[in-house]
Write a structure and sequence with these properties.
- It is a single chain.
- 10% of the residues lie in helices and 46% in strands.
- The protein is mostly beta strands.
- It has one domain.
- Strands 1-2 form a two-stranded antiparallel ribbon. Strands 3-4 form a two-stranded antiparallel ribbon.
- Belongs to the bacterial ribosomal protein bL28 family.
């Protein structure tokens, strides 16, 4: 499963709770994109979450 290379945001786990209050497992996935990013060693592809992209924590190539 993909994880953000900057903030290490990944999937979270919890329960679906129905109206009758029965629980089943569920998963929230982070909005992670594969992006070409400028690093010290030149451009490179990495997984980055959209909140890091919007905040300007990464510079796209």
């Amino acid at each position: 499963m993909a994880k953000c290379a900057i903030c290490e945001k990944a999937a979270h786990f919890g329960n679906n709770v129905s109206h009758s209050h029965r629980r089943s497992n569920r998963m929230w996935k982070a909005n992670v994109k594969s992006v070409k990013v400028i690093t010290d060693n030149g451009p490179r592809k990495m997984y980055v979450c959209t909140s890091c992209l919007r905040s300007g924590a990464v510079e796209r190539a």
